[in-house]
Write a structure and sequence with these properties.
It is a single chain. The chain is an alpha/beta fold. Helices cover 39% and strands 15% of the residues. α1 links the parallel β1 and β2.
Length: 287
């Protein structure tokens, strides 16, 4: 089982000293990866329902710092050697795929092949409205953007034609160190996300990891794999949960989960150190 830390760019981790301490401590105790989140803006008094809490609101105040998800990963790449660097997630339909392809290939090159591109289709309609991107097109834009990114990562330049994006043969360099490209991990806990992972993803990341919900989503993913003639074992499963003991880890492993993601154990450096060292002693060292 691999273990990762989410929210690595949010709140106190927007500041370099805290992010540095989080990354170096995580790598030292055997954490495999860190994951950043994205909201380019948070509209004041938004009405859209945040899907990961009962309140329907994101944790923390609306003005909490949420830096760009990719730039902090480049910072971490420069100070670590093994830690994998994941976006968890980039809101893909809000970005042009040519920029994402270039940025992630650059991150992969600078980190010697440690990048992971977690993508989602988004939930905050007011954010899409701010950007002038139709909210009801987000699923189709996400699917097309994945195909476009993979096209730009190919060794030979080729044209791309879709509903939202179209270009003649273009060069996009550097290419990712990982071939045929940075792993694309489809985030989301809907059936649409499960089907997207089966058709287009290298991984599937339902952020909410309740076993009963997860079992249903994995069945949808596997059924979709059967329809398209794909081996579901090719798709690495990541999910988020509170990890209390080894039995929790084993339960998720038995479901087919390869990576468990958790929140940092605290926000100040002392709490991060003690929390991660304790987790490593109780969980990581026992596996």
């Amino acid at each position: 089982m691999k273990f990762g830390l989410m929210f690595a760019n949010a709140g106190p981790f927007a500041w370099p000293d805290n992010l540095r301490h989080l990354a170096l401590t995580a790598e030292r105790v055997g954490i495999e990866s860190i994951w950043t989140v994205e909201h380019v803006v948070v509209p004041v008094d938004y009405k859209s329902k945040y899907p990961y809490s009962e309140t329907g609101k994101m944790p923390g105040p609306d003005n909490i710092p949420i830096p760009d998800p990719i730039v902090p990963l480049a910072f971490v790449a420069a100070i670590t050697q093994k830690l994998r660097l994941g976006t968890g997630v980039v809101i893909l339909p809000q970005r042009h795929p040519a920029y994402i392809a270039k940025e992630m290939a650059t991150l992969d090159m600078l980190s010697n092949g440690r990048a992971l591109l977690g993508i989602g289709s988004g939930w905050l309609q007011e954010e899409f409205d701010t950007l002038g991107i139709p909210f009801n097109e987000r699923g189709a834009r996400t699917n097309e953007s994945i195909r476009a990114i993979r096209s730009l990562w190919k060794d030979s330049a080729e044209p791309f034609t879709g509903k939202f994006f179209k270009w003649e043969a273009v060069e996009s360099n550097p290419k990712p160190v990982q071939r045929p490209g940075v792993p694309i991990i489809v985030g989301g806990h809907s059936e649409a996300a499960a089907k997207r992972a089966a058709r287009l993803g290298d991984g599937f990341f339902p952020a909410r990891g309740e076993p009963s919900k997860l079992q249903g989503l994995l069945k949808v993913m596997r059924d979709e794999c059967a329809k398209v003639g794909r081996n579901p074992a090719e798709i690495e499963i990541t999910t988020g949960t509170l990890i209390n003991d080894l039995d929790t880890v084993k339960r998720y492993r038995d479901l087919g989960v390869a990576r468990l993601i958790m929140a940092p154990p605290g926000f100040d450096q002392e709490a991060i150190t003690s929390g991660l060292e304790s987790f490593a002693e109780k969980i990581v060292s026992k596996l």
